[in-house]
UniProtKB/TrEMBL annotation:
Record field: compositional bias (Acidic residues): 374-393
Ranges annotated as biased composition (Pro residues): 402-412
Coiled coil regions in record: none
Annotated Gene Ontology cellular component terms: cytosol
Residue segments, region Disordered: 313-429
Basic and acidic residues bias: start-end ranges: 363-373
Alphabetical list of Pfam families matching this protein: DUF3402, N1221
Residues in Far11/STRP C-terminal domain copies: 459-799
Bias kind Low complexity: ranges: 313-327
Protein name (record): Striatin interacting protein 2
GO terms of biological process kind: cytoskeleton organization
Annotated signal peptide: none
Family: Belongs to the STRIP family.
Length: 821
C-alpha cells in the first residue's frame, strides 16, 4: 500500500462558514456583544497537566455505553465455570495458590479450537481483570481486586496467550471480507477483538500505574512487562507495531470492523509505558546532557508552566466601548449640571461637536494581535493573505461620541494583567554568529562566515560581549547529534561504525521506519474524522464500529437522553470523538518528544511526514470552533461509567440523575487534547520558516487569539508562542508582494535540505545492504571465483543457449588486450 493512496485531503479552514457578506451596523454590534459576554464569563480553570487523567477516568473511557450489557455477560460466564471449581466459595476467599491454579485452567482452555468456547473463557478472564465487581461493595474494592488479578494474570502468562489470539483475529481474512461487504458495522462484528483488547488494555494501564503500596514482586513484574512490551519479542517487532498495523488496515478500509477507539487507547498506553511519560523524558534529557558533558538544564519547563497563573483574555471592542460610554456619561452629567447652573436655560440649541474617538486605535497599536474574532470571518474574500493584520473594523476605527475631554485609559488597572511568559529563549550559536557578522560589517567591512573565535579588528567592548555571550550559550542535545552526524558523513573510514544503543525508542523507530508515512497518515485520517469541525462525508472512515449496537437502544434510555436534548448515539459519538482525539494527540506528542531526544533526525522525519500530510491546517481547523464550548462540554454520564455502573444500582433514568456527579467546570480530556495539539503545532513550526509561513497563510492568528479566552496558563503559553513566531511576518504590503515567493523559496530550500540530511542519516545507520563506496573490495581472483552465486531456476534450462550466444559466438580480439588503452 503506497502512501499516496492514503493522502489526507487538504483542509480549507478559511471557508468553513461559506461565503458571507460583511455584516454592518447592528449585526457587528451583536457579534461584538456576544464576544464580550463569552469572554467575560470564562472562568479560571484549575487544571493540572499530566501524562493521563485519574485511573478511574482512564478505565471508564475504555467502554462505550452500548457495552454495558456485556458486564453481566462476563460475570455469568465466569461464575458458570468457577462454580464447578470453587464449590460454593467466592474468588476473593481463595488463597493465591488456588487462584493461580484456576487461572492456569483458564489458560489451557484458551487453546481450544472451538471459537465460541474460547470467547467464553476470554470473557471470564476479562471479568477477573475488571475486578470481580459482583463480589465487591465499593469502587475502591473493585480497583483493588482488579489490580491484584491483573498482576496475577500477567504472572501466569495470560498476556502472551492473548497476543497470539489477537494476531489470529487480525489475520482472519474471512472476518475482514465479511465486514467489508456489510452495509453497516455493529458491536457484533468486533466481539472477539473488543474482549481481547479490553483485557490487554486493563493489564497495560493497571501495571503501568505505580502506587505506594505495591509489593516488591509487583515492581519487578512492572519492569519485566515494560521491557517485554518494548523489545522485539513479538514476531521480531515491538508490540506497538502490531497495533500500528491495525490502524493502517482500518484506515485503508480492509478491516472496517476493528474497534479503533480501543486500539488507539491501547497503542497510546503502550507507548507511554514502554518509552516513558513527561517526567521520565525530563530525567532522560538530564542524563543525556550529562553523558555529552553539557551544562545542566536550568529548569523543568513543565514544572515552571504548572506554577504559572492564567491571565484574563484581551478585552474585546464591545467591552471597551461600554466602559468608555459609562465613564463619558458620568462626566457629561456632572458637566451639564454645572453649565446649566451658570447659564440657565438657553433658547438656542447647543452645538454637539463630533469628536473622533482614537482610543481604540491606540489600543490596537498596543495590541500586536488586534484582529477581532468575528472580523476574520467577515473579511473580503479577495484578501486571502491578511490573517495577521487586517483593516480595522469601522466600529473599532471611527466611534462617534460627544464628550470633549480626552479619553481616560481604556483598561482599568484591575484588568491589566500579564499573560504567562517564559524566558526569552536560549542563546544559541547562531545568535553569536549574527552578532559578530553585524559587528564585523560595522567596524571592518567584511565577514568571516561561521567563525566565532577570530575577533581581530573589533573593539574591546565587542570582545567582552562575545565572551559574555559564550558564557551563557545554550548547546542542545540536537546540536551535538547534528555535529556528530556531519562528522560521521565526512569521515566514515576514520570514525567507523556508530555504536547505537538499542533503547526502546530506537527499536520502535527501526520497526516504524519502513511504513512510517502510512502510520502517520492513518493517525491523521482518524484525527480528521474525530475532529468536531469535520463535516460528514459518505466516503469517510467509520470510527463508531465498536459503538453502534445491533438494535436500537431501549426506549427507557432513549427517552432519558431525549430529556437532555440528545440521543444515545449522538452522545456516544461525541464522547468517542473526544477520546480518539485525546489518544492521538497524546500519542503523536510522545513520539515527537522521544524521537527528538533519541536523535534529532528521527524527530525531523516524523515532523516532515506530519507536515506533508497537512497536519498544520488540520490542527488549525480543530481550533476553528467555539473552543470554550468544546472544553466545557460534558459528553459522559457518571452513573453509566465504569466502575460506578457495576457497583451501584442503576437509578431511575431522568435528566437529573444523568447529570448528577459531574461538578467540574471543564472536561479534562478535551483541555488535555487542546494543549497536546498546541504543543505538537509548536514542535512542527519552531525554527522552521516555511512552516511558520503556513501559519500565516492559513490565517492562524485570529483562530489562536480565540483560544486565549481559555483561562489556563499552560494553554495560553503555547498559544502565545505560536503567535510570537509569526510577528516577523507581519505587514500587509509585504505579504501581498512576497508571500508566495518566500513561501516557495523556503519550502523548496529548507524542507529539501532537511530531507536530504534525514535520508543520509537513515541510509548510514539503518541501510544494511547499501553499496558503500568505501567498503573493502576482494581483489583475490581465487576468492572471487570461489564465491557461490545464486542463479535463477530457469537459468539451468537455458544456460547452454546463453553460452552459445554470449560466449562461443562472440569473437574475441586477443590483440586488443595487448594494446595500450
Amino acid at each position: 500500500m503506497q502512501a499516496e493512496d492514503m493522502e489526507v485531503p487538504i483542509i480549507n479552514i478559511l471557508n468553513d462558514n461559506g461565503d458571507r457578506q460583511r455584516p454592518k451596523g447592528k449585526d457587528v454590534f451583536k457579534d461584538l456583544q456576544k464576544e464580550s459576554e463569552s469572554s467575560m464569563e470564562s472562568p479560571n480553570l484549575e487544571f493540572e497537566y499530566g501524562d493521563t487523567d485519574a485511573l478511574t477516568a482512564e478505565l471508564s473511557e475504555l467502554y462505550s455505553y452500548t457495552e454495558e450489557p456485556e458486564f453481566a455477560l462476563n460475570r455469568d460466564y465466569f461464575e458458570e465455570d468457577f462454580r464447578s471449581h470453587a464449590r460454593g466459595r467466592r474468588w476473593i476467599e481463595l488463597k493465591v495458590e488456588e487462584q493461580k491454579t484456576y487461572v492456569m485452567r483458564l489458560l489451557d482452555a484458551l487453546e481450544v479450537t472451538d471459537r465460541d468456547k474460547r470467547l467464553k473463557v476470554a470473557r471470564a478472564i476479562l471479568y477477573l481483570a475488571q475486578g470481580v465487581f459482583d463480589e465487591c461493595d465499593t469502587e475502591v474494592d473493585v480497583l483493588h481486586w482488579s489490580r491484584h488479578n491483573v498482576f496475577l494474570l500477567y504472572d501466569m502468562g495470560i498476556f502472551t496467550a492473548l497476543l497470539e489470539l489477537l494476531s489470529m483475529e487480525i489475520d482472519n481474512n474471512q472476518a475482514c471480507s465479511s465486514a467489508v461487504r456489510k452495509p453497516a458495522i455493529s458491536l457484533a462484528d468486533s466481539t472477539e477483538l473488543r474482549v481481547l483488547l479490553s483485557i490487554m488494555y486493563l493489564m497495560v494501564e493497571t501495571v503501568r500505574v505505580q502506587t505506594e503500596d505495591d509489593r516488591p514482586e509487583w515492581r519487578a513484574a512492572r519492569e519485566a512487562f515494560k521491557n517485554e512490551l518494548g523489545s522485539p519479542l513479538y514476531n521480531g517487532e515491538p508490540f506497538a507495531l502490531l497495533l500500528f498495523t491495525m490502524v493502517t488496515k482500518f484506515c485503508s478500509m480492509n478491516a472496517p470492523h476493528f474497534p479503533m477507539k480501543k486500539v488507539l487507547l491501547l497503542l497510546w498506553k503502550t507507548i507511554l509505558f514502554t518509552l516513558g511519560g513527561f517526567e521520565e523524558l525530563q530525567g532522560m534529557k538530564v542524563r543525556g546532557r550529562e553523558r555529552l558533558n553539557l551544562a545542566p538544564l536550568p529548569e523543568d519547563s513543565i514544572k515552571v508552566v504548572r506554577a504559572m497563573r492564567a491571565a484574563s483574555p484581551p478585552a474585546s471592542a464591545m467591552e471597551l466601548i461600554e466602559q468608555q460610554q459609562q465613564q463619558k456619561r458620568g462626566r457629561r452629567s456632572r458637566r451639564s449640571a454645572f453649565v446649566d447652573s451658570l447659564e440657565g436655560d438657553s433658547p438656542f440649541p447647543k452645538k454637539q461637536p463630533l469628536v473622533k474617538q482614537d482610543s481604540l486605535d491606540t489600543y490596537n497599536e498596543r495590541d500586536p494581535f488586534k484582529n477581532d474574532d468575528a472580523r476574520d470571518e467577515e473579511e473580503d474574500p479577495e484578501d486571502t493573505d491578511s490573517g495577521i493584520e487586517g483593516e480595522v473594523d469601522p466600529l473599532d476605527r471611527d466611534v462617534i461620541i460627544q464628550p470633549p475631554p480626552p479619553p481616560p485609559p481604556l483598561r482599568p488597572p484591575q484588568r491589566r494583567s500579564t499573560y504567562p511568559k517564559a524566558s526569552p529563549g536560549p542563546l544559541k550559536e547562531k545568535d553569536i554568529e549574527h552578532f559578530l557578522e553585524t559587528s564585523r560589517n560595522k567596524f571592518i567591512g567584511f565577514t568571516l562566515g561561521n567563525d566565532t573565535d577570530t575577533l581581530v579588528g573589533l573593539p574591546r567592548p565587542i570582545h567582552e560581549s562575545v565572551k559574555t555571550l559564550k558564557q551563557h550559550k545554550y548547546v542542545s542535545i540536537a546540536e551535538v547529534q547534528i555535529q556528530k552526524e556531519d562528522e560521521l558523513q565526512q569521515c566514515p573510514m576514520t570514525l567507523g561504525e556508530e555504536d547505537v544503543e538499542e533503547t526502546p525508542t530506537e527499536m520502535l523507530y527501526l520497526g516504524m521506519l519502513p511504513n512510517l508515512s502510512q502510520y502517520v497518515i492513518a493517525l491523521l485520517k482518524l484525527l480528521l474524522a474525530a475532529a468536531p469541525t469535520s463535516k460528514a462525508k459518505t466516503d469517510s472512515i467509520n470510527i463508531l464500529a465498536d459503538v453502534l449496537p445491533e438494535e436500537m437502544p431501549s426506549l427507557t434510555i432513549l427517552c432519558a437522553c431525549l430529556l437532555l436534548h440528545i440521543t444515545v448515539l449522538q452522545s456516544m459519538k461525541l464522547g468517542i470523538d473526544e477520546i480518539i482525539v485525546k489518544a492521538i494527540s497524546a500519542l503523536l506528542l510522545l513520539l515527537l518528544k522521544h524521537f527528538k531526544l533519541n536523535h534529532i533526525y528521527q524527530f525531523e522525519i516524523v515532523s516532515q511526514h506530519l507536515v506533508f500530510a497537512n497536519c498544520i491546517p488540520l490542527i488549525l481547523k480543530f481550533f476553528n470552533q467555539n473552543i470554550m464550548s468544546y472544553i466545557s462540554a460534558k459528553n459522559s454520564i457518571c452513573v453509566l461509567d465504569f466502575p460506578n455502573c457495576v457497583v451501584h444500582e442503576m437509578p431511575e433514568l431522568t435528566a437529573e440523575s444523568l447529570e448528577a456527579g459531574d461538578s467540574n467546570q471543564f472536561c479534562w480530556r478535551n483541555l488535555f487534547s487542546c494543549i497536546n495539539l498546541l504543543r505538537i503545532l509548536n514542535k512542527l513550526t519552531k525554527w522552521k520558516h516555511s512552516r511558520t509561513m503556513m501559519l500565516v497563510v492559513f490565517k492562524s492568528a485570529p483562530i489562536l487569539k480565540r483560544a486565549l479566552k481559555v483561562k489556563q496558563a499552560m494553554m495560553q503559553l503555547y498559544v502565545l508562542k505560536l503567535l510570537k513566531i509569526q510577528t516577523k511576518y507581519l505587514g500587509r504590503q509585504w505579504r501581498k508582494s512576497n508571500m508566495k515567493t518566500m513561501s516557495a523559496i523556503y519550502q523548496k530550500a529548507e524542507e529539501c535540505a532537511l530531507r536530504e540530511s534525514i535520508e543520509k542519516f537513515n541510509s548510514r545507520r539503518y541501510d544494511k545492504n547499501k553499496n558503500w563506496e568505501f567498503a573493502p573490495v576482494d581483489n583475490c581472483l581465487q576468492s572471487v571465483l570461489g564465491q557461490r552465486v545464486e542463479l535463477p531456476e530457469d537459468f539451468h534450462y537455458s544456460y547452454e543457449m546463453w553460452l552459445e550466444r554470449e560466449v562461443f559466438s562472440q569473437p574475441i580480439q586477443w590483440e586488443g588486450l595487448l594494446q595500450n588503452p
